Amino acid sequence: MIKSKFFSTTITLQLPPNTPKTRLLEQTCLTLLQSHCNTFPKLTQIQTFIIKTGLQNNPLVLTKFASSSSNINAIHYASSFLFPSHQTPSPSYDAFLFNTVIRAYAQTQTHHSKSKALEFYRTMRRYGVSPNKFTFPFVLKGCAGVGSLRLGKLVHGEVVKFGFEDDLHVVNTMIHMYCCCEGEEGVEFAEKVFDDCPKTDLVTWSAMIGGFVRLGRSACAIGLFREMQVMGVCPDEITMVSVLSACADLGALELGKWLESYIERKNIPKSVELCNALIDMFAKCGDVDKATKLFGQMESRTIVSWTSVIAGYAMHGRGLDAVSLFDKMVENGITPDDVAFIGVLSACSHSGLVDRGRAYFKSMERNFNIVPKIEHYGCMVDLFCRGGFVKEAFEFVQKMPFEPNQIIWRTIITACHASGELKLGESISEELIKKEPMHESNYVLLSNIYAKLRQWEKKTKVREIMDMRGMKKVPGSTMIEVNNEMHEFVAGDKSHDQYKEIYEMVDEMGREIKRAGYVPTTSQVLLDIDDEDKEDALHRHSEKLAIAFALLNTPPGTSIRLVKNLRVCEDCHSATKFISKVYNREIIVRDRNRFHHFKNGLCSCRDFW
Question: Running DSSP on this structure, what letter comes out for residue 130?
């Protein structure tokens, strides 16, 4: 046993008495780095020790120095010491050292730092150091952070070159990397890697499912999860978080209920993250009461738990419940973050709580030192617009401390259309088109305003410009879950096996709700045609087709749940109120902005939609 004193620290080494001095210094340094290097000043002291004792070429010491610096977020400083620009490559540079540095950069949070992981891989190759199977997972993780498909394919080539394309850990990270690259092409490469895997494990399946979810291909994620079950691979909580996210995106409540029971049956540990995912899923699938119940059963909660329920209340138009829970969260000593404020401001917006929204917005900086971001300003603009204060919203935008984005301007244009401020909406739309000449929604908004002004020639000209530039309006679509199967409808859809019966039911619905007092909102049809033809066009909207399908295929009196990709139009909103009363059905519609609960001829949104 040998005792050594370093600055104010005495360390004890279990070494023979006749240990060589070099070995003693090495072990002293390794022990200091392992047990005492927890601050940057201590790191620099140990660096001085390394230089004074001549250990700067010791591979073990350099690798440990890199690892310890990573633990205290000082890898940038450490790498400048380990790889000085003026120094020629040292024999002490081995794969373990490079792996440690590459891993440190890959695990950082910034895009620039992750790209440094790739730079050090290039340095590694330039120095003639061969990578091993532990190198590529770190390099691929760096690629995932950068999100460059081109770089990812280059690293994939390196993996093949060095013969690690069958290493499961490398393959799993490669799938994750491709899924993180922008666009459809990345996930297509991930699918190919997945399909070509000679062997897979739970991580392989989870990475591919997570990739589908990240890209919005939720149906593919659910399909792969079912295939995973057939193959006998048991998911863990990480897999289930991804699957629940896919379920939430689809709005598939029955599937969500089955997933909850599956988690119970398989005894999958209910981590806080998994509970949060369940809460989010139930809220987004239309059962916010179940989400609230799960929240109440949680033994420990994070800010995400609170925010998920607040956001759920907001989506369902339960503004008073949302603000009450937000206030309770603050009373319990949990400091709200910027996401929590987005939730409570959205709740105020969807429930017409203009004054409460103003108060919360002002409290961000005053009470919580949170500087509002553009998303919070966007919530306030939405709040004013939904509350009918369009001119105040316009004045608010003009006083913002930064340039408003196009989403904010489009919110005001939509409000101008709804409130009759058509000239203001027209001028803003024209300016927006100058800034974003290839964004189709800007043209659609202007076209809508011209239609409401009955300026058909201008409206036609806008549509011609869209056609000339190859732009098309995003078609409205509606999904419905019946008997554990998802069905999707688009306007005028005749692709469904039951389309003849569906259209007959649509016609019946039209007759019945007209008897009950429904008057079609023909101004929603942006065509210069007679009112009868306009009514016919309105009857073919996707949500009416989905409701007709539900009436044909579900028992009388049961709830109907729909998920729409766009905001529900004024006519469908009015018609669905009447359908809920005439057919005695509760109809829950999730559109792009919120939930609408139609029951007995009324909607939960109270027209704040």
Answer: P
Q: What is the pTM for the complete model shown?
A: 0.84
pLDDT of residue 533: 41
At 430, the pLDDT band (50, 70, 90 cuts) reads: confident
DSSP 393: H
Whole-angstrom CA distances from 441 to 190, 447, 469 are 32, 10, 13
Q: How many CA atoms lie within 13 A of 581 on its CB side?
A: 15
> Where is pLDDT greater, at 535 or 25?
25
Task: Decide: helix, strand or coil at residue 218.
Answer: helix
Tokens coding 495: 């692709």
Cross-strand pairs, 477: 490
What amino acid is encoded at 430 in this protein?
Answer: E
d(CA 346, CA 349): 5
Residue with tokens 């008057």: 519
| Cα separation, 598 vs 585, whole angstroms | 8
CA distances 56 to 13, 53, 120, 237, Å, are 21, 8, 19, 44
The tens digit of pLDDT for each residue in 534-549 reads: 455 666 889 999 999 9
Q: What is the DSSP string of 286-320?
A: T-HHHHHHHHHH-SS--HHHHHHHHHHHHHTT-HH
CB 342 within 8 A of CB 314: no
pLDDT of res. 8: 54
DSSP annotation string for 228-271: HHHTTPPP-HHHHHHHHHHHHHHT-HHHHHHHHHHHHHTT----
**24-33, 58-67, 202-211: segment of lowest average pLDDT:** 24-33
Amino acid present at 133: K
Q: What is the mean pLDDT of residues 246-275?
A: 95
Stated length of the chain: 609
- CA-closest candidate to residue 588, choices 580, 256, 517, 309: 580
Please tell me the distance from the alpha carbon of residue 409 to that of residue 441, in angstroms, as a whole number: 12
Instruction: Tell me, rounded to whole angstroms, the distance of Cα 182 from its chain centroid.
Output: 14
